[in-house]
Write a structure and sequence with these properties.
This protein is mostly helical. The protein contains 7 helices and no strands. It has one domain. Its main location: membrane.
């Protein structure tokens, strides 16, 4: 189970980044798609922010992930996707690391709980604190990834 606003906020940053990249490449249809998704996700965030009145679910999250991967390949900038989507990478990697380490060490854990956002909750951060800090990381990753994509 995710946190209120986490997927929506980080997706907005990532789609915004690929929208800018597509615009610079004169891919107006792709840029329009990316900015439309950014706007839609920001509109959804109004109802999905803590305490959420509406939830995205796996279907919405998977659709956003598929759309983001498509934008990455259509711009030819798939190498910066792990940076632009840094929060998604950290969340997924924390699960893989936790399970692998748990099996290799016979029950020891790296994190208090996986995925990573739950680890920070276990450390005493409130849900809005975790989400807002992950948004900051996501925005920074999107900005740096966009700059790197323009350098190529």
């Amino acid at each position: 189970v995710g946190l209120d606003g986490l997927a929506a906020g980080t997706s907005a940053a990532a789609f915004g980044a690929y929208g800018i990249i597509a615009l610079i490449q004169d891919q107006t249809f792709l840029a329009t798609f990316c900015f439309t998704v950014t706007g839609a996700v920001l509109g959804f965030l109004w109802y999905n922010s803590y305490p959420a009145q509406m939830f995205m679910g796996d279907t919405g999250a998977l659709a956003l992930g598929g759309g983001l991967a498509t934008a990455a390949f259509m711009t030819g900038q798939w190498l910066v996707l792990p940076l632009i989507g840094i929060v998604f990478v950290l969340e997924g990697a924390s699960d893989v690391l936790q399970v692998g380490y748990y099996r290799l060490t016979g029950g020891k854990r790296i994190f208090r709980m996986a995925p990573l956002h739950h680890h920070f909750e276990k450390l005493g951060w409130s849900e809005p604190q975790v989400v807002q800090r992950f948004w900051i990381i996501g925005i920074l990753g999107a900005v740096v990834g966009t700059i790197l994509a323009m350098e190529v």
